[in-house]
Amino acid sequence: MKRNVIVFVMACFIFLTGFTYSYEVDDNTTGYAMYVNDVEVGVLKSAAKGLSIYDEVIEGIKDKYGGQKIYIGAKVYFKEREKYSGLFTSEYDLARNIQQVVEIKTDVFAITVDGQPVCFLKTYDEAEEVLERVKNSYRLTVEQSENTVLEDIGFKESVEIIPQTVLYSSVVDVDKAFKIVTTGTAEVQEYEVKEGDTLWDIARNHDMRVADIQAANPGLKSEMIRPGQKLKLQALKSLVTVVTHEKVTYTEEIPFNTVVKNTSSLYKGQKKIEQKGQKGQKQIEVYITRENGVEVSREKIGETVLKQPVDQIELVGTKSKPVSSTSNRNYTRPSDLTPISRDGVEMTPWFGGADKIFTRGSIAKVTHVKTGLTFYVKRRGGTNHADCEPLTAADTAVIKRIYGGSFSWAREPIIVQVNGKKMAASMNGMPHGGSTIANNNFAGHFCIHFYGSRTHGTNRVDPEHQAAIRIAAGK
């Protein structure tokens, strides 16, 4: 009874003050160091007392987990210390220390990726739910796409659900497991801005949005960046790759052919459409494979013509035009042949832009980007692009130098300057059609294309001209 009162008083003292009680011994006392899982948890006067407290701690743990299947891992042993003169560990501290070092394990189901466990869940159904949630975001995207059938969905990696026994503290819920599987670890990359870079280009090349880059770089107040500047790129890396196989059906236009017929009823250089072409239509069936939503392969598996195209018939004049004494003019070439600087060159759209700047009859200074050769031209006409003539025979000679001494249909990047405005453009160097300038040694005119301009014949954007325009703009 007396001992119980003392223990109660000691417990009250510990609770109120935060101090635990240990007592000192004389030099001839033997102590017993108690180890649990190779960690010293205290020194006791009696090993039996240590075992008794250990049993109480274990029972308390079992009560705490109330009926759950757990395994308590604890290797207990003692080491005798003769003539121990230190302090013996209090029962309170001993119990606390034991709780901290015992291992509490439980049976779980691990989601493994290529043999490596990435998270642990209580039940197989929970693990399966996580994997289905990972697939569902991609499944839903495919199912909501028009004319698309999901053939199969799975993982590129070897993904399994395997029973394991792990520390109880390692178990996570479904939401946490989903986040682990889909986001993995954040990889922070750094990018050094190069000449000509824009935030839009950098974002597109790294599969990001401009807003993502701005969020990762709080000091970036606007979209203005400079060469040498270092930007942080934040990207989340998923631990798994969801692979979808889709069958997609879509329609595609069939272009019509243009048949040219000569006619003496029209003057040379004149054209007339005798029969307007009509585009056909075909149905295409393809098999598309995507990884995490990004297309990695496409295979055509079927094609059906729904409507045949109708040829367009164009009449081209062969009759000579009457000679007019005032139809042709001679021009004097400006003396400034300094190459146009690339600073401030813009990809000015043709329609509503370059068409209004480089007007019909205007004279422009032109520099070939690759060689720096400079010449002058006059815009003769043209609706979908600029039909131009070399201003003088000397300008024609420069064009021939650009093409190695002869005329050519090849596309070349150029810079066109009109009234101080510098515009990225593309030219060919082949005389064709009519002309208005005499004595320039160029029997006809040639084409200059700008961003978004189209050909006259097919009314289409010429990809080779557009590629040369991007080179001229420094893209």
Keywords:
alpha+beta, 4-stranded antiparallel β-sheet, 10 helices, 22 strands, elongated
Care to describe what's here?
- The structure is a single chain.
- By secondary structure, the chain is α+β, with helices and mostly antiparallel strands.
- It folds into five domains: 22-101, no CATH class; 109-183, no CATH class; 186-236, LysM domain (Membrane-bound Lytic Murein Transglycosylase D, Chain A, Roll), CATH 3.10.350; 244-319, Resuscitation-promoting factor rpfb fold, CATH 2.20.230; 350-472, Thrombin, subunit H, CATH 2.40.10.
- It has helices at 2-17, 47-64, 91-101, 124-143, 174-183, 199-205, 210-216, 350-357, 393-402, 463-472; strands at residues 31-36, 39-44, 70-73, 76-81, 103-113, 116-121, 148-155, 159-167, 186-192, 230-236, 242-254, 258-267, 271-275, 280-291, 294-307, 312-319, 363-368, 374-381, 386-390, 408-418, 421-429, 446-449.
- The strands form six sheets. Strands 17-18-19-22-21-20 form a six-stranded antiparallel β-barrel.
- Helix 2 crosses helix 3.
- The longest helix is centred in the first third of the chain and has 20 residues, at 124-143.
